[in-house]
Design a protein that fits this description.
With 395 residues, the chain is mainly α. The chain contains 18 helices and no strands.
C-alpha cells in the first residue's frame, strides 16, 4: 500500500515546484479572457451568449488537444510538447489583442485551446515516471495548487490592467510573459525518461476508456461546473452591481484565493485518511449543497456562499484531474489517461460557454446555481459507488 504521507527528496520537491509554476503560467494565457468577456461583448456589439462561444471554442479544442497530446505524450518527449504549447499560446495571445472580428477571435482562441492542451498531460507523465510510487497520492494533491494560483494571479492582474477600452492589454501582457516562460522552460530541460513506445494502438485507448468510464463521467460533471464558473464568475460579480467595474477582477480573484483552501482541505483529507475517493465524495457533496443554497439568496451573502462552494469544488476537481490519472493509469499510460479525463472535463466546460450565458438570460443566476449543485451531487454519488477502485489500485 502506498503512503500519502511519504516525504519527497529535495530533488523531487524542486521538480514538483517547477512543474507547478510552469502549469500555473499556462493559465495566464487561458483564463485572461474571462475578465474581459463583457468588454468584448460591448466592443463587438454582440450578446453574452454569442461572446460566450469563445469559451466554448476554447474548451472544445482544448478537449480535443488533451486527447491528442495525452496520447502523443506517451510516445514523445513531454519536454518538447510543453515547450511548444507555451510558445504557440504566447503567439496567439499577442495576435488576439490586435483583432476586431469575432470570427478571427474564435479561430485564434481555438488554436489557443490546442496549444494549452500541451501542458497538463505531459506534466502528469513526468510526475508519474520521475516520482516514486510511495509519493503519488501526496504529489497528486499538490499539483492543483498550480492552476488555482494561476487563476488568482491572472484575474487580479488582468482586472487591474484591462479596464474600459483597454481590453487588449488582457492578451498582450500574458503573451509577453508566456514568451519569457517558454525561454525559461527550454533552458530548464525538465523531461521524463525516454519512452519505450510500441506505437499508438486504438484497442489500448478503447480498453483504457472503458476501464475508467466512471471517472470520465465525474470529470464531465465537475468540468461543466468548474470550467463554467471560470468563464462566467466575473460576469456574475459584474451583474450583481455590488462592486465598481474596476474591482470585478480583484473580487473574482479573491473568490479563488478562498478556493485555495479547498486544495489544502483535499490534501489534508488524503494525507490523513490515505483515501482519495472518499475525500472527493465529501467535497463534491459540500460544493453541491453550497450551490443549491445560492438559489435562495441574492444579497452579499452570495459572495461568501459561492466562495465556499468553489473552495470545495476546487479541492474535489483537483483530485479528479490530478489524483485519478495517477491512480487509474497502467504503467506508461499516465499521459493518456490524464489527457482523456481532462478532455471530458473541458468538453463539458465548453458546453457551459454558451449554455450558461443563455440560461442566465432566460432564467437568471439562480437556475445556473441549481444546475451546478445537481451536477456535483451526482458526481459525488458516482464516485461513492466506485470507491473500491482505490483499494484495487493499492493492491
Amino acid at each position: 500500500m502506498t503512503d500519502s504521507r511519504a516525504r519527497l527528496s529535495r530533488h523531487q520537491t524542486l521538480l514538483v515546484g517547477a512543474l507547478c509554476a510552469t502549469y500555473g503560467l499556462f493559465y495566464l494565457g487561458r483564463v485572461n479572457i474571462s475578465v474581459v468577456l463583457p468588454l468584448l461583448a460591448v466592443e463587438l456589439n454582440v450578446g453574452r451568449a454569442e461572446v460566450g462561444i469563445l469559451g466554448t471554442v476554447f474548451f472544445w479544442t482544448y478537449a480535443l488537444g488533451n486527447f491528442l497530446w495525452g496520447e502523443v505524450g506517451n510516445h514523445v518527449r513531454p519536454f518538447r510538447v510543453i515547450g511548444l504549447g507555451l510558445l504557440v499560446s504566447a503567439i496567439v495571445n499577442l495576435v488576439f489583442g490586435f483583432q476586431a472580428s469575432l470570427a478571427a477571435m474564435l479561430a485564434l482562441w481555438g488554436v489557443n485551446g490546442l496549444a494549452q492542451a500541451g501542458g497538463w498531460s505531459p506534466i502528469v507523465r513526468i510526475l508519474a515516471e520521475r516520482v516514486d510510487p510511495a509519493h503519488v497520492k501526496g504529489v497528486s494533491t499538490i499539483m492543483p495548487f498550480s492552476y488555482v494560483i494561476g487563476t488568482v494571479v491572472t484575474w487580479a492582474l488582468i482586472g487591474a490592467v484591462a479596464t474600459g477600452d483597454n481590453w487588449r492589454a488582457a492578451f498582450w501582457l500574458p503573451g509577453a510573459v508566456l514568451l519569457l516562460a517558454t525561454a525559461l522552460w527550454w533552458k530548464a530541460g525538465i523531461d521524463a525518461p525516454k519512452a519505450r513506445s510500441s506505437g499508438v494502438r486504438l484497442s489500448v485507448i478503447i480498453d483504457e476508456a472503458r476501464g475508467a468510464i466512471f471517472a470520465l463521467l465525474v470529470a464531465a460533471l465537475a468540468g461543466f461546473v468548474r470550467n463554467g464558473s471560470i468563464i462566467w464568475l466575473p460576469s456574475y460579480i459584474l451583474d450583481s452591481g455590488w462592486f465598481p467595474d474596476g474591482l470585478v477582477g480583484a473580487v473574482a480573484a479573491l473568490t479563488q484565493v478562498i478556493a485555495l483552501a479547498g486544495i489544502f482541505l483535499a490534501r489534508r483529507g488524503v494525507m490523513r485518511s490515505n483515501q482519495v475517493f472518499l475525500t472527493a465524495v465529501l467535497m463534491f457533496s459540500a460544493a453541491g449543497l453550497g450551490f443549491l443554497l445560492l438559489t435562495l439568496t441574492t444579497d452579499l451573502l452570495s459572495i461568501a456562499l459561492i466562495s465556499l462552494a468553489l473552495m470545495m469544488l476546487n479541492g474535489a476537481f483537483g483530485l479528479v484531474t490530478s489524483s485519478l490519472p495517477l491512480l487509474l493509469a497502467s504503467p506508461g499510460r499516465a499521459s493518456s489517461i490524464a489527457g482523456t479525463l481532462n478532455m471530458m472535463a473541458t468538453f463539458a466546460g465548453g458546453l457551459a460557454g454558451f449554455s450558461i450565458g443563455g440560461l442566465v438570460e432566460l432564467s437568471g443566476w439562480g437556475a445556473v446555481f441549481g444546475l451546478w449543485g445537481a451536477c456535483l451531487l451526482l458526481a459525488a454519488w458516482v464516485i461513492w459507488r466506485q470507491r473500491a477502485e482505490e483499494t484495487r489500485w493499492e493492491e
